[in-house]
Write a structure and sequence with these properties.
This protein has six helices and nine strands. The protein has about 170 residues and is α+β, with helices and mostly antiparallel strands. It has a single domain, classed as Glutaredoxin, CATH 3.40.30.10.
């Protein structure tokens, strides 16, 4: 499992843009994690699934409501990762009114989740392999803090916990 001091895995995630950006058409656009994190401080959180109750009602709203506080603490970007496709993540970002504040990045085949060792097997519930719920502070592509939740929990990966860690880092 990934730990403090480790570099983020060299994985390409995907992101859906609702408008043309940098000459790219609408649709899934690759995001090279290493390049996207280079030289930046990232507040990254991962959830088991888009549009799920805890994720939509608590996890994402916490990061949105603390956006300005994260910026004041030196965080350049906030990333939300989930094992969903880029179209679903784009629709969820729009639903959560997150444009310009949180990047919703798709880990469609769970490659990032597997590479970090932060997977959650929900096959018995019909959801397949997912990402565990966690948050981490990342500086220049390296993990500074990691808050990994226990199964079915939402106690340590919340925005307030990661914000306190960002302020202390």
């Amino acid at each position: 499992m990934i730990k403090v001091g480790d570099a983020l895995p060299a994985i390409a995630l995907t992101e859906f843009f609702h408008e043309e950006k940098d000459g790219c058409a609408l649709g899934p656009n690759p995001v090279d994690v290493g390049k996207a994190a280079a030289g930046k401080t990232i507040a990254l959180f991962a959830v088991p699934g888009a549009f799920t109750p805890t994720c939509s009602a608590k996890h994402v709203p916490g990061f949105l409501s603390h956006y300005d506080d994260f910026k004041a603490a030196g965080v350049d970007e906030i990333w939300c990762l989930s094992v969903n496709d880029a179209f679903v993540m784009g629709a969820w970002a729009e639903n959560q009114q997150a444009k310009g504040r949180v990047r919703f990045l798709a880990d469609g085949s769970a490659d990032f989740a597997k590479a970090t060792g932060l997977t959650l097997d929900l096959t018995a519930r019909g959801l397949g392999l997912r990402s565990n719920r966690y948050s981490m502070l990342v500086k220049d592509g390296k993990v500074v803090t990691l808050n990994n939740e226990g199964p079915g929990k939402f106690e340590v990966s919340d925005a307030a916990t990661l914000l306190a860690q960002a302020k202390a880092a």
